[in-house]
Design goal:
Order of helices and strands: EHEHEHEH
Structural class: alpha/beta
Number of strands: 4
CATH architecture: 2-Layer Sandwich
CATH topology: Transcription Regulator spoIIAA
Strand content: 15-25%
Largest sheet: 4 strands, parallel
CATH class: Alpha Beta
Length: about 120
């Protein structure tokens, strides 16, 4: 049985260190790397943390749990947590799970950053 390749740890944008752009499917195999990146960003306690999902075609329950945990940590210190650029397939997953009523969701990163 072939083991899946370990996913690279996502890095915040250089021009906006409080924005984490993600690519590909966010699933059980990728979630630990995303969690590690988010935790490193959260340690710095940014006023706002934005997840850029424009390049994410799918997210599973492990990915959703990663975002819920990160949002709770950010809100615990008084910061704001936002998602931006959801593709239609990802948006429908948030709507079906009713998480679209829990998260702040913006059409793009610039709009999310301006909302801070």
């Amino acid at each position: 049985m072939k083991k899946p390749a370990s996913s690279p740890v996502p890095k915040p944008r250089k021009d906006h260190p409080n924005v984490l752009p993600l690519e590909g499917e966010i699933d059980l195999h990728v979630s630990p790397a995303v969690t590690a990146s988010l935790n490193a960003m959260i340690e710095k306690k940014p006023k706002q943390l934005v997840i850029d999902l424009t390049q994410v075609p799918y997210i599973d329950s492990a990915g959703l749990a990663t975002f819920i945990e990160a949002m709770q940590k950010v809100e615990a210190y008084g910061g704001k947590f936002a998602l931006a650029g959801l593709q239609e397939t990802v948006r429908s997953i948030f709507e079906i799970s009713r998480l679209d009523q829990v998260f702040q969701i913006f059409p793009d990163v610039d709009t999310a950053l301006a909302a801070a």
